[in-house]
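Reply to dn_fold:

You asked what the input looked like. This is it:
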Amino acid sequence: MRNVIKGGFLAFCLLWPGLSLAQTDKVAQWVRELDRQRFEAQIKKDTARLNQLLADDLIYTHSSAVVETKPGFVANVANGKWDYRQANLSNVQVRVMGQTAIITGRGDLVMGNNGQPQNVNLLFTNVYVKRKGQWRMVSWHSCRLPQN
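and this is what came back:
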């Protein structure tokens, strides 16, 4: 009986890291999907969805160095100041650390500027935190890439 218990415990110990990694991968995929939905909401000016995805204490630092809180950012998406038209992301990595997920990558965005499309190429860091069972974006920070 002791050998069965020891064998079961050993198997559990060997499998536990794999279970943890699988769970972390699922969380990373979920947060990445939430971020895709956030970009979609920004493009569609879907303020109801943005309000669901953004934490109340959001700090949003644009590549232009403008810093906004959630109410200001959502209002400026709604009124067209931030006229997101397209977002192509690449080199995206999601790192999950407990109740925090950090997303980094490159964004090639098309924004409206006085009615005309403008390409904005940037690198970004985006942070989501799980609170009360819900993942919400708490921080965005980006910097523009030099024009070639």
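Strands lie at 54-61, 67-69, 83-97, 100-113, 116-131, 134-144.
Hope that clears it up.
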